[in-house]
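Worked Example 4.2. Consider the chain below.
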Amino acid sequence: MPRHLQNASPDPLADPFHELPGTMGQRRLSLLGARVLFESARPELLRLVDHAYRGLPGHRARSAGPALRIQLRLTQRQLARARRRPPPPPLKTLSGPGGLLCGVMDESNFVLLSPNARAGLIAVSRDMLARRYHARYELIEFALFTLAARALGLVPLHAACIGRAGRGLLLIGDSGAGKSTLALHSALQGTDFLSEDAVFVDPKTLLASGISNFVHIREDSLHLIESDATAARISRSPVIHRRSGAAKFEVDMRRLGCRLARTPLRLAGIVFLSTRSAGSVATLRPLSPQRTLARLSSAQAYAAGRPEWKAFRRQLAGIDGYELQRGRHPSESAIALRHLLERLRSG
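Applying the procedure from the previous section yields the following C-alpha cells:
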C-alpha cells in the first residue's frame, strides 16, 4: 500500500480503504440549483469550501431528491525540499463503467465521481493546501461542476453570464476575449453577475445557474476601472497564476459590493465577443438564428456532445444572438449590454 495512504491511519490493515475517517464536519449549501453536502474530517479542507462558496446566493434546488454528496480527504506525502516548487500537474480525466468519472493530478490529488449515486470523493494533499487556487479550481470545482451537470442533466457552457430582472445574457468568446473584464464592468454598472467562466443551463427551462464568487483580471486592466477606490480594492486581491503563465487578480465579487444574481437567470440572448473593434462606441450586430446556433455549437464542443444538447437547441429557437464589437473602453460594451437587457425585458 502506498506510504502516503498508510500515514492516514495508525493501522492500515484494520482499515485498508480508510472507511473510518473520524468525525465529519459538514457544509450544506445550495449551488447550481442543487442541494450539496460537503463533508470532511479536516477543518482546513472545509475552509477551502468556505472560501469558494460561503455567502453566495442560494439558488433554489430543482429537485427534492437526495443531495449531492462530496467528501474531501487529506492525504500525506513527502516532497523533496525545493526553493521553488513547480505547479502541480494538470488534471487528467477518465471514465469507467457504471458512469464512473475521475480526474487525476497525481497519486495524492484526485477526484472520483459517481453521478448515478450523486456522490464524489476529493483527495487533496497537505502541500496542495498552499496552492488554494489549484485545489479549489481544479479539484473542488471540477467535482462540483461535473457532478451537478451529470446528476441534474444540465448543459455545461464555457461562458460568462450577466442579467437583469431575471433575464440573462450569455457572453461567449475564446480565452482572452474579455469575458471576465466585460462581466466585471457590467457588474460595476449595476447589472446582476452570475458567472465569469462556467454556466449551467436547464435544457427544458433555459434557467442558467453559476457560481458568482470570483472574477479574474489582469493587472494591465486596472487602469480601465473608472473608480480609483474600486481599482485600489481590486489591486489588494490575491494574485493567481494560470497554467498559461498569465498572472491575474482573483477578485472576490462577494466583497466588491456588486449585485450577485439572487436566482437563476432565464436566458434571453447570446452575445459572441468579437476581437474586432467598432471604434469609439461598442456595437451589437444581430445574428440570424441559424448563425447563432452554428457559432454556439462550434464554441461549445464539449456541451454539444452531451445528450442534453438536442433539447437545449430546440429551446434556443426563440433566443436572439448578437456579435459584440467592442468600443474604446469596456464600459462602452457594458452599456450596450445593459441597453440590450432593457430591450429584451420590455420586448
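The longest strand covers residues 265-277. The chain has a mean pLDDT of 90. Compare this with Example 4.1 before moving on.
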